[in-house]
Amino acid sequence: RPKSLVSIERRIKRAHALRHRIRTWSQYHQEKNSESVKFVSSLVREANKVDLMFPEVTMLNKIHRKAEEWVDRSTIAIRSKISLSELETLVKNGEKMPLNLSDILEKLQSRLRMAHDWIARVQKVVPIPIVRIEDEEDEANSDGGAVAVHREWLGRMRAVLGGEDEDVTGTLLELATEGSRIPVEMDCLRLLQIEIDARNWTAKAKKLVPSLRLAAWEGEDAAAEVATAGVRKSKVSDIRDHIARAASIRERLSLSPEEKKNWVLDAEATLILIVKNADEWFKKYKPYLEGDNRRNQARCCISVKKLRQIVDEANAIPANLGNAMIKINRIFSQAEKWMEKHHRILVRCGIDCSVVRKTLPPPSQASGGTWATRVELQNAVSTAASDVPVDLEEALELQHILDKVQDWFDRATIVAPKRSTRMRKNRGSAAQEKYSLDELSSLVEEASILPVDTGEELERLKIQLSMVQSWQLQAQRDMRDITNTFHVMRKERTACYGAPDRFQKRNNVFDEASGLPGPVKVPSALKAIGGNSGNCTASSPESGAGMATTTQRVDSPSKMAAAVPATKRLMVNYSKVQPLINVEKSVHKMIATLLKSARSIGARTAEERIAELLEKVSPWCVRASCIIASPDEVFEKKYFKELDNFIQDAEKLLALRENTIEKESQNFEDTTLIRDLCDSWSFVISDEKVRLETIRERRDEFQDWSSKAQTLLSSTDKKLSLSVLNELADEASMYPLSAEVVRQVQKQADLANVWAQR
Asked: Which of the 8 DSSP states describes residue 435?
């Protein structure tokens, strides 16, 4: 036979023998589990050699594969910890195996018994049945049931562990220790360990925050009422780390995120509230807590009351806030010492010192002592800047008061200086700046609200105010006298020259040929309009009121009147000349005296402003008197413009009348005084203006006559008749001899008359 056939027959024979063995083992030995895994492994190896598939081999391979997997998993379970549910599954599957697995199965069964015994002991202490998720067929329903049971059991365990029965608590702790030695992971043990860790966590939390604080810190409203005396506080960082450990304990729970969030440890809310308040405190007062205030150029500004609030809020937090708290406490202590040291000055200045914890005298007693001095104020301000590393609002307020006091003393020194010898020597070296009467009065009023002694300066101010008021009364009497004198002056000038509208248009000069003393000599009178040139002496009205100078040659009025022929006399009442001179001299002297006294008074008053206005009026009147008394220069061409400008100056002075009355009347009790004074000098200026305009008309007439005379004298076509020449000479007598045309006409007329007499 072929070898291949022999080989096949041999394999079939071996396969039948293997089938018989498998069936025999399956029929007689499967129930007794007398064979080990090794026996099955040998059958599998033999089947692999036969290399033929039949149902018995398939069944054998399946049993062998399950046995190998079970052995592998059991070996791992023996070497490490597995969950209780997995251990129960392994034991259950091992018992169903048709093999002898006693060497491994007994170990697993021993562990399972230990776990069940331990759970039974725990359930006696905390009688809540354990529902494991792995044991539930309906996974959806099992989640809710297991979670509910776990949550309830956790609550029961916490109640037992936190109860007063120490024996029960000790039993649970011993069970937890024993359970940790059982190499099985049990839900009960895990929950018990979580609650024990939670109990330990709470115990440490109570050490971090003493129990006397916990009740008060259950709510934010009660935080400020927590007592802090004599209690050592834990660091915020330690409390923060302890809260983090609570979160790690919570993560070990087999609950949903929402359930985990609701599971809170005892005192955890208190620690979270403490940290929250500490963080808010740091954030709220960050500008005052960070950096080195002594080295920082821009120091923060804060009041002692605010510092007290910061310190009180920090003390109300039952935690050690670290360097920030040390820093703010030091600043507050320094500020408090500064306030205690300068308490009297602060109270005197009206600054609240009630925030100081030390018992101080009441404000009524503290402010009832001696007055503060500027040196004490300066010392308090400088001490605050050097001793306290922040700018205290109270110190800044004190600095403001010091500046106000110093400003008051500076102004008082300017207004009412000390009458020292040195100041008298330097009085004329520089003009002292004027001050207003309101400023002087306000200085006297401000002295009563200043917190320092102002006795000496206030007395000088009162004396100065009294002097100014006395001078004002005298100045008002002088102004009334000036008003009356202006009225008299107007009457005298009217008596001397006549009414302004009837002012004679003839030349008010003497004829030098008459042999009289001559005209009133006032050279360059118009030049004095813009300055002090000429002999009007406008700048010194008291020396003669501008009417006459050293060159003036006026004899007695009666002698003048008798010596002048009727046709050549001045259109002036010479009997009134001397009274006119006296009146003008008097009024200008009174104005000069008033102005001088006004300038000697340091206060700027309405009377001084009136005197300055009269200072403008007086020179104008003096110059007007000069021009009217001796108008020769008016007829010189180079002075035409000056006369026009001088009349315009009169219009400007008259325009000041209404403004002065409107502005200054309210500064006087006698409201009619200013109006009467302005009316008096404005009437004089108006009259003089009319007379000057009359002179200007004569000047214009002279200009026309001069053109006519020059035309006749220069004519070469026809000689003048003696009658025409004498007529020109008569007309020339109306104009000043200083005019070249007048001299030329009179010379020609004299020569012609002499020739005619021959």
From this structure: E
In the numeric block, the tokens 């960050």 are attached to: 286
> Is residue 437 over pLDDT 60?
yes
Report the chain's terminal Cα–Cα distance, integer Å. 216
Q: Distances in Å between the alpha carbon of 179 and those of 115, 122, 174, 188, 321?
A: 8, 10, 8, 9, 42
* Residue whose pair of structure tokens reads 């006004």 in the numeric block: 598
Phi, psi of 392 (to 5 degrees): -75, 135
Distance, CA of 322 to CA of 603 (rounded, Å): 63
CB-based contacts of 152-157 (< 8 A; 24+ apart in sequence) = 152/128, 153/126, 153/128, 153/188, 153/191, 154/191, 154/194, 154/195, 154/253, 154/263, 156/126, 156/128, 157/126, 157/191, 157/192, 157/195
Residue with the two structure tokens 């207004």? 415
Do the beta carbons of residue 93 and residue 76 sit within 8 Å?
A: no
Task: Return d(Cα 483, Cα 680) in angstroms, integer.
Answer: 6
DSSP codes, 436-492: EHHHHHHHHHHGGG-SB--HHHHHHHHHHHHHHHHHHHHHHHHHHHHHHHHHHHHHH
**What residues does 301 pair with on adjacent strands?**
391
Angle at 739 between CA 733 and CA 742, to 5 degrees: 40
Candidates 370, 382, 349, 378; CA nearest to 453 is 370
pLDDT of residue 143: 52
For residue 136, the Cα-to-chain-centroid distance in whole angstroms is 74
The H-assigned helical ranges of 301-420 are 304-316, 323-341, 343-348, 363-366, 374-387, 393-415
Distance CA 140, CA 230 (A): 56
Q: Is the pTM of this model over 0.90?
A: no
Question: How is the chain split among helix, strand and coil, in percent rounded to 5?
Answer: 70, 0, 25
Q: Which amino acid is at 549?
A: T
Residue 475: other Cβ atoms inside 10 A? 21
The highest-confidence range among 448-457, 465-474, 631-640, by mean pLDDT, is 465-474
CB 108 within 8 A of CB 90: yes
DSSP state of 575: G
Quote the distance between the C-alpha of residue 498 and its chain's center: 72
Let me know how long the chain is. 758
Give me the residues paired with residue 452 across strands.
Answer: 372
Quote the distance between the C-alpha of residue 687 and its chain's center: 62
CB within 8 A of 370, min separation 6: which ones? 453
How do residues 530-574 score in pLDDT, each as one tens digit? Answer: 333 333 333 333 333 333 333 333 333 333 333 333 323 233 444
What's the sign of the alpha-carbon dihedral 610, 474, 541, 576? Answer: positive
User: Which residue pairs from 56-61 have beta carbons closer than 8 angstroms and sit at least 24 positions apart in sequence?
Assistant: 56/18, 56/19, 56/22, 56/23, 56/26, 57/18, 57/22, 59/22, 59/26, 60/22
CA separation for the pair 482, 677 (Å, rounded): 7
Residues in a beta bridge with 603 = 435
